[in-house]
Design goal:
26-stranded antiparallel β-barrel; 575 residues; 4-stranded antiparallel sheet; mainly beta
């Protein structure tokens, strides 16, 4: 067989019982060239984990002032127990100094998680100031019904991720989430509790403009099984305490008892529904100058809706293949009387991005601080193409629009009353053809302006697991106009090229581009990626070079495959 790399040593001892090997005066030759020496080396004889040094990682970046320069990271792995392990590393950066890194992972019957920490005592490119980061992820399942989820992220400054991110997918972030969740699923209800805080990295953001803390957020919702041609009851109750500096704060209680009578058959469905939304606030910090005059405002609103649809289908035959085409018209009516809500605070509410699914919501606002007023009718039509034998959906096309019978007077602060008589026309198309081509198109057409308000298009061609080409386009009027091309394509049995090109037509500006190659044989593999991207911090371009090398059966260096997996849809690493 091929001998691309060879491990030479003065002595080699193999212990079949412990599945470990030890060697002295070790020299690793690659293609006949010595590339590594160690006076002593311990290595596993199987896939079992073993404590010891891991292959180092290398990276080179150049973004002018503030670059980390050349880097090498030397990690050491501790196999503490079958359910516990840890990794510590020294990251040496020529332009910044030496950073200590650590990660601890655990796996028990009751949960799993990991903790990570980083510390740079004096960053030479950051006025010799100390910089640090910490993260905790935990998923627990004490019983089949009780589940916990914890996420804590912390860094010392807003430029931490841009300067010291440990992979090519660097990004700046304004807020970091710190939350702890618990979920209990009963026979007929689900309880959810959360304590959530946000760490604001950008101190220039005024305290009154930062997200509210939720300490706590409690929600109980019914979980009854719906039965056709029978009354159905549902209710969700939320109790949330909102806190923020220099702001109106307090408790919000929101509940929505709902009764419906679903009628569903293979050929049609009809669902009349009545809901009563009751909301009560207990506030602090109200009064003149706050816009909230009352410390205990409330809201009581009835909601009436009528949802209905028909299902038609016909059989098609194209050659020897048989297909089923459906035609699914849908009608949805919503009525909510107007009630002024300007005296209610806005803790967590915002308007949903308008999509096809939004045509059938009973509130255009997320959160409970605003409930839309409505007297409107949605007309929509969907058609699907199914493979008759398997039932697989090959194509789906939908179009719909809302017709308004009165103005939408309930708005968020600073917004104007919407007096339009119809919504944007929304159309969507998805296609998955012959396991190679995937197509997605979405368009929102503004009937008043006679032009598109939003648009997306994506195409993927993947003839096999080693090959994929992606092309996408995204448009938001006066805001976003971007193209995104990415690909991984074989250059032969052992070589593949990878790349991405992301460009803003609106700003005539390159957002990101990278290109590289990867090679693998039976015994070794490598990939290298050169990247140039626009920094979120100061608008300057950052250049980076990433390299990954692996001797199969011994170890690897670098981690470019993780970056490619995130940035090229459909990418599959081969080593």
């Amino acid at each position: 067989g091929e001998e691309d790399w060879v491990l030479n040593a003065s002595t080699i001892h193999l212990d079949r019982v412990s599945q470990r090997g030890e060697a002295t005066n070790v020299v690793i030759d690659f293609k006949g060239v010595p590339i590594f020496y160690s006076p002593w080396l311990s290595f596993p004889l199987s896939k079992q984990r073993k404590s010891g040094f891991l292959m180092p990682g290398m990276r080179l970046s150049d973004s002018g002032d503030g670059s980390s320069g050349a880097e090498i990271t030397v990690p050491y792995y501790f196999n503490i127990a079958p359910h516990l392990d840890a990794t510590v590393a020294a990251r040496v950066m020529t332009e910044r100094g030496v950073q200590a890194q650590g990660e601890f992972r655990y796996l028990f019957d009751w949960g799993q998680g990991q903790m990570g920490a980083e510390f740079l005592p004096a960053d030479s490119a950051f006025e010799d100031r100390p910089r640090a980061g910490f993260n905790l992820l935990h998923n627990g399942y004490f019983t089949p019904r009780l589940y916990t989820d914890v996420q804590v992220d912390w860094v010392s400054d807003k430029e931490y991720f841009e300067d010291l991110g440990t992979n090519l997918n660097l990004t700046s972030r304004t807020f970091l989430t710190q939350r702890a969740d618990v979920t209990y699923s009963g026979e007929n209800f689900v309880f959810f509790g959360r304590a959530q805080n946000y760490l604001t990295l950008d101190r220039s953001i005024a305290p009154g403009s930062r997200p509210y803390k939720q300490l706590p957020y409690l929600r109980v919702q019914t979980n009854f099984r719906e039965r056709t041609f029978r009354p159905f009851f549902a209710m969700t109750t939320e109790v949330v305490n909102f806190d923020r500096e220099n702001s109106v704060t307090g408790l919000r209680i929101d509940t929505d008892p709902t009764i419906s009578f679903p009628m569903r058959t293979p050929g049609y469905f009809v669902v009349p529904k009545a809901k009563l939304r009751l909301t009560q606030y207990l506030l602090d910090g109200t009064g003149p100058g706050t816009g909230i005059p009352d410390s205990g405002p409330s809201r009581i609103l009835p909601l009436l809706s009528f949802d209905s649809g028909l299902f038609f289908d016909r059989q098609l035959k194209l050659g020897s293949a048989r297909y089923t085409q459906t035609l699914e018209p849908r009608l949805y009516y919503l009525y909510v009387p107007y009630e002024g809500q300007d005296d209610l605070p806005v803790f967590d509410s915002g308007e949903f991005t308008f999509t096809f699914a939004q045509l059938f919501r009973d509130n255009r606002f997320a959160g409970a601080d605003r409930q839309t007023d409505a007297n409107q009718l949605t007309l929509a039509l969907t058609s699907r193409l199914l493979a008759t034998a398997s039932g697989e959906e090959l194509l789906s096309a939908s179009i719909g629009q809302i017709y308004y019978f009165r103005k939408r007077r309930v708005q968020l602060p600073g917004q104007q009353v919407d007096s339009g008589s119809e919504s944007n026309l929304v159309a969507e198309l998805t296609a998955d053809l012959k396991d190679r081509w995937r197509l997605g198109v979405g368009v929102q057409w503004d009937p008043d302006l006679g032009k598109a308000d939003r648009g997306t298009m994506s195409v993927r061609y993947s003839p096999d697991a080693r090959s994929v080409i992606n092309a996408s386009y995204r448009y938001v009027r006066n805001t976003v106009d971007q193209t995104d091309l990415s690909a991984v394509w074989p250059l032969g049995p052992k070589w593949r090229a990878v790349g991405r090109f992301n460009y803003s037509l609106e700003q005539s500006q390159l957002l990101e581009t990278f290109g590289g190659v990867e090679y693998q044989s039976c015994c070794w593999g490598f990939r290298t990626v050169a990247r140039r991207y626009l920094s979120d911090i100061d608008g300057a371009y950052v250049n980076a070079l990433f390299f990954q090398f692996e001797l199969k059966g011994l170890g690897g260096l670098g981690g470019a495959s993780e970056f490619l997996d995130r940035t090229i849809p459909g990418y599959q690493a081969e080593f």
